[in-house]
């Protein structure tokens, strides 16, 4: 624990640093390759929408004597021969069967066959119907909610940070999270339910929160960056990423552990199938969101902000003066390492302390 705390202190002070922003092309390429693979999965396999989106009939068989899913398909074949039943286990004694739309007569007949097949009574079989119009409405509302969320994010972040590049970097990171999470769903084949959409918006908010924390540190480190010549904008931003790295890791571990227990213990070992849809999206989204907030959002913001002519000129000025200082140090017989460069030129946390406190006004003499 002490060594990890020292590791965090070294990252915050700049004594130890990982050049995440400087190697941004590597992370951009890695993220792009993963997104392309996930896009191919979405194109070839597609998502598996739940009954709330596609419509149909659903049967819940309770107090079953067996969980054999093939029995549901056999019962459905006796009623309708051209449909494939979607069967899942819910707990240790409940089976959920989803079909395409059935008539009232077919629904009643299938309920009796399911009760007979699973060794239970007809009263233990409940049925419900979701029409196609309802599914279209749910899909439209889900897309509408996602669009409104992204629009509000871009507006709020632009106003808060006063830099459109930060809003763009955050949106690109969110796009990265959305595509990869959807690709994993296409690979695994879990159903997309309203709970999945809720979890999807939740992980976008989690990723955005982590990104905002890093951006806030970037703004703090780079405030008035063009008024000095010790470090570039990219170096100040890279220090901000390193300073928040341990915090991001700790937050992710604390958040992922309970979700992992729900996903692997609750859903797979105990058979709580209804938890899989939201647990998987939270588990994958939190991991991907942590990666994007560190390796995608800030490096992308820096890449966009470097298009500013003022920043370009300042970078060239800093690097030129740095080479001159190193040459002068070597001419005097001093090692090049004696010249403070990069993040070493920025004293982390020097703005804090008693000097940063507002001065009290002297009391007027009466």
Plain-language structure description:
By secondary structure, the protein is α+β, with helices and mostly antiparallel strands. It contains 12 helices and 6 strands. It folds into 2 domains: 220 residues, Multidrug efflux transporter AcrB transmembrane domain (Multidrug efflux transporter AcrB transmembrane fold), CATH 1.20.1640.10; 75 residues, Beta Polymerase, domain 2 (2-Layer Sandwich). 64% of the residues lie in helices and 7% in strands. A 4-stranded antiparallel sheet has the order 3-4-2-5. Strands 1-6 form a two-stranded parallel ribbon. Helix 2 crosses helix 7.
Taking Cα atoms only, what radius of gyration do you get, to the nearest Å?
28 Å
Amount of beta strand: 5-15%
DSSP strand count = 6
What is the CATH C-level name of the largest domain? Answer: Mainly Alpha
CATH-scheme architecture of the largest domain: Up-down Bundle
**What's the mean pLDDT score?**
79
> What is the share of helical residues?
55-70%
Task: State the end-to-end CA separation.
Answer: 57 Å
Provide the descriptors you would attach to this structure in a database record.
366 residues, 2 domains, elongated, four-stranded antiparallel beta sheet, Multidrug efflux transporter AcrB transmembrane fold, alpha+beta, Beta Polymerase, domain 2, 7% strand, two-stranded parallel sheet
